[in-house]
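Possible regression after last week's pipeline update?

I re-ran a chain I had predicted before the update to compare outputs. Posting the input and the new output here so someone can diff against the archived version. Not blocking, just want to make sure nothing changed silently.
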Amino acid sequence: MREKNIKVLGVIPARWGSTRFPGKSLALICGRPLIHWVIENSLKARALDKLVVATDDPRIAEAAGQCGAEAVMTGANHPSGTDRVAEAAGKYRAEIIVNIQGDEPAIDPKLIDRLAGAMLREKNWDIATAASPLKSAAEAAAPSICKVVFSAAGQALYFSRHPIPFIREKSFAPPETVFWRHIGIYLYRKEFLARFVAEPPCLIEKAECLEQLRALHIGARIKVELTDHAGIGVDTPEDIAAAEEALRKKNGDGT
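New output (post-update):
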């Protein structure tokens, strides 16, 4: 039976079989499971009416419960976290679904609130996401960092692993940053999320390995909120030390 009166549902996708880091949701960060950091920061977001962890593993489900989040068991063979989020969201009656990355221990609850506010105020957006300024051309050149360009209204125009926009003239010296890092948090209107996961990957998505390009391909209006919060991603075991250092600095060693 579906729950009522949920406008904004937060979903943290967390599978056990990560290709680069199996079981990373339970990896210890400053002595606590990674998933606990994500849950606790997400629960501080006032806009969320409910928060759940979508997982295929009972060990992750148990850890979620220990931290006060409901776990929703999902299939084990989803091609992406977005598909896992969509399955979990189908169990609830919600207007907006927040896909919160399960490997971001320092997710900013205020950013979640800002993005949810934009979606609730402006009904013309299908998706909302975020971007932070890149500080150097070297960062912009890194294929591991997704870049985004957007209009004056904050609507996403394109995402790429390549530096965008291309700087043609070497003498070009903009007064502010021209490169923006895409932050991997997504808010979907529920109807659009269902449409999105039903669509096959498009050519540009396959070329760049960026699923948000599928959304643009099918005509999505994507709101980009700007933030100075770049996040702390944990993709491999080697990322743990950097994440711990960043969390200690952020929390004044009060971790």
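Follow-up from reviewer: compared with the archived run. The chain has a mean pLDDT of 93. Marking as no regression found.
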